[in-house]
Amino acid sequence: QQERQRRSRRLRELRALALGQGDFELRDGSGAARRTADFRGRWVLLYFGFTHCPDVCPEELEKLSRAVELLERDPALPPVQPLFVTVDPERDDAAALERYLRDFHPRLVGLTGSPEQVRAAAAAFRVYVSAGPRDADGDYVVDHSVLTFLLDPDGLLRDCYGRSRTAEEVARSVRGHMDTYEPLPP
Question: Which domain of life is it from (predicted)?
Answer without folding.
Answer: Eukaryota
